Here is the input.
Amino acid sequence: MEDISLYMLDLVQNSIAAAATLVEISVIEDVQNDKFILSIKDNGRGMDPQTVDRITDPFYTTRTTRKVGLGLAFAEAAARACDGGIYISSQPGKGTEVRVEFRYHHIDRPPLGRIDQTIAALVACNPSIEFVYTHIAPGGRLCFDSREIRQRLGDLPIDHPEVVEWISEYIGEGIDEISGGGKE
Amino acid sequence: MKSLKELEEIRQRALESVNLRKERNGTRIVVGMGTCGIAAGARPVLLAFVEEVNKRNLHDVMVTQTGCIGVCRLEPMAEVYRPGEEKVTYVKLTPEKVRRIVAEHIVNGKPVTEFTIGAADQQ
Here is the structure.
């Protein structure tokens, strides 16, 4: 994966597969403590401790069609390469939280990428799931909550193309603002 | 800066101009969004489908996602389902190819054979 926004898109697929109806995504740029944290929390079906232990093994997957599952393995490898790691907490029936930590200033830390496109793609394809995105950067804080958007839209579906475009621009501009305009 | 107020304008406009269908029985475009697809560039492909469908006002076309379709080396892939027709699987997609597929296949009903999985296998 080239950047954080793609890891995000990939990891959220696990939440979707776990039948989550609410996915809370956050990015925390903690420059002071030299930490970059990507976290994905869902209310999907969750996993038992035995499954959590094996989940970053590339040869573990819940799929029955193939024998590999690379998403979490990739994320873990990327985090470890940047003096970080992956932390997973999960409870059957309650949900799962995956936290991927990088050293902020590590030379190999992937760039942020196009978070706006990731959220737009998620909303466009999963109109029945609620997505919350929080981004904390030195320049401020951005909050996006699809439930709030839905309220404004009334009976217009959230995956209406014009709405998706608006969401993408809203997030793109918001991130530009809090990170001082530095886009990769 | 974007404001939530704009959403209400979009809503007004959309509800006036479009006869929104509650059930979409038309064409379905399914983009593979497994780890393989995402790493190969599925996201811009998916967004290109959404954009193109929107530009052409194709209200009965639905763009959605699935996991790994199964031939990871040919990602990004997408499957097109048109009512009453056989499924067409496109491989090694790019936003440019997407624009042709929407114009020729989704709008005009003629699959772009050279981008299909059948064509890729013959190479």
Notes: Residues 42-55 of chain B form the longest helix (14 residues). Chain B has a mean pLDDT of 89. The interface with chain A takes residues 1-2, 4, 6-8, 10-11, 13-15, 20, 31, 33-36, 38-39, 43-44, 46-47, 50-51, 53-54, 63-65, 67-68, 70 of chain B (CB under 8 Å). The helical segments of chain B are 5-17, 35-40, 42-55, 95-107, 117-122.
